[in-house]
Every structure is written in structure tokens, then in C-alpha cells.
């Protein structure tokens, strides 16, 4: 396979690069700065906004998996929100132009989107009828902007005129990997410090997916040409925030977790230079299309996934 990974230098990119390189795929990463990646992974520079020589990398590729976008793990200031929007919409739009102009375009375009597109709800969100967010009266106004980013991101994909290329929007939940700096690392730090108790009552759902299942699901999507449009990328059995953290604390051998109120969560998020929406918004995403097509999750339940991730985290060499 020849695979192009725009934005493939980040957390999800690392997962895919390792998997592709291990089985001998030809992998090209598009990044804004030249970097040395794993042996066998090529690198091309783009700016994520304008067409350039990088577009030639798409010729004859089997797939493009677009991961580009400013991290959402930051304070939601006006500047950061604008960058979160522009980096996603612009990169998707210019990729669409490059695919449209290719003489031999990739057969498949897997485009990152996010489970944040769904409304804050404790009921299950399927692809066909899950309530899209932005109209909930009970949530802070600025949460609407995260949903708007997700909608415009998917709109840029829809608007790309690429009749020879199948397009899939990956509505991804939090990707759990043992690596340092990822969301599992942050939640684990809280659990190990005894801070990982219920937040704001803890009844909100936490959707997640194990990194191994991200790689396996993307392979599955490449092998199933009948699947296009939105696909939820989330483990099938999400738990409430209180349960999610209780299980994680147990996996780390820390039975006690202090509860936190909504304002404490906001203050904690401020200290971690991130935003409380990531802790407070309820996401109960159901991977209906993947399950319906016969995909089997390697880590469908959180107790199993958490135990696996803790064991792998413990095995990492000290920095
Ligand atoms: N990780 C998760 O839990 C999760 C869950 C749901 C959705 N997602 C989405 O999946 C995608 C990949 O996630 P990730 O965790 O791998 O993200 P990440 O670690 O932040 O990496 C994303 C990459 O995007 C590139 N980028 C950043 N700002 C950009 C800009 N202004 N223009 C163009 N490219 C830019 C960067 O590459 P260079 O600096 O090399 O150019 C960066 O390595 C993101 O869009 C994210 O929102 C992630």
C-alpha cells in the first residue's frame, strides 16, 4: 500500500506510521516542518493551506488519511479557537483540491473528524440519528464553537469534488495510547495523584477508543469499499466519567479519587492549560456502522483496555 498521512507527525500519526512501516507499506507524511521519522517513512513539506509540490505524493496512492489540525488540548481562547477551525478546514479543503486535480487519485480518503460533533447527551449517538450538537440550551455557549468546527471540517470533506475517491469522516472519540502527553497520560496522572474522582457529578459519558483499535479500524475501512460518509470511531461500551475513572484508578492500584465540582474542573483544566469541555461534555458514541459491517474490537471494554494501557505505560522506559 502507498499511504499519505497529512498531519502524520502527531499522536494518531505515530500509531499509523508504526503500523504501516512494520508491514512494509510506503508511507509519506505531510508536515509543516521537515522532521526525521521512522526508517522507511518518507516526509514531504506542506503548509496545510496551499497547493504545492506535495500534491504529487497523492498520484497513485492507495489512501490518504488526513490527521492535520491544531491540537484541541489547549485553552479555548479566541486565537486558539480560530486556529483550531482554520487548520482543519483549510487543510481539508486544499487536500480536496489536490485529490481533485490528481490524474490517478487515491482510492480512499479517510478524514479525521471528531465525536465532539454530537450533542452533549447521555443517550447513545449513532451515525444515522445521533443528535448533532450546537443547539443544547444547557451547555456553555462556547461549546457550540467546537461543534461548529467539527461541522465545517466535515463540510469541507463533503464539498470536495472527488468522484473517483471514496470519502469517510472519522468521528473519533478520545484515542487512548500509553504514550507520554496523550489523554490517557493526563487521566492517569490524575488517577495516580488521587484526583481522579467524579467530576461535576460524574454522570457524563466518556467515549474512548484504544489506539490498537484505531489502527485496526482504519485497516478495516480501507478493506471495505462499501463504507463511506460518517463512521464513529469509538469503543462500543463507554462508561460514565465516574466509572471510567474508578476503573482507571483500580488499574493503577489507587482506590481513592477525590470528587471535583464543575468549578474545580475548570480550575484544574486551567492549570493543565487545557479546557474543561474535554472533561465535562457527555459523549456516548456508538460505533454502529463498524459493528454492523462486522468489525471486531480488540479492546471493546474499558476495564480490559485500561489494564492493557497501564501495563504498557509501566513498561515504557523512563524519559
Ligand atoms: N487524539 C485524539 O484523541 C483525537 C480524538 C478525536 C479526534 N482527533 C483528531 O485527529 C487528528 C489527529 O490527532 P492527533 O492526536 O494525532 O493530533 P496531534 O498530535 O495534535 O497532531 C496533529 C498534527 O496536525 C498538524 N498541525 C497542527 N497545526 C496545524 C496547522 N495549523 N496546519 C496544518 N497542520 C497542522 C501537526 O503536524 P506538523 O506540525 O508536523 O505540521 C500535528 O502533528 C486531529 O485533527 C485531532 O483533532 C484526535
UniProtKB/TrEMBL annotation:
Gene3D superfamilies tied to this protein: NAD(P)-binding Rossmann-like Domain
UniProt family annotation: Belongs to the NAD(P)-dependent epimerase/dehydratase family. SDR39U1 subfamily.
Domain DUF1731, first and last residues per copy: 271-309
Taxonomic placement: Bacteria, Bacillati, Actinomycetota, Actinomycetes, Kineosporiales
Stored InterPro entries: DUF1731 (IPR013549), Epimerase_deHydtase (IPR001509), NAD(P)-bd_dom_sf (IPR036291), SDR39U1 (IPR010099)
Pfam family, one: DUF1731
SUPFAM superfamilies: NAD(P)-binding Rossmann-fold domains
NAD-dependent epimerase/dehydratase domain boundaries: 4-228
NCBIfam families from the UniProt entry: yfcH
Protein name in the entry: TIGR01777 family oxidoreductase
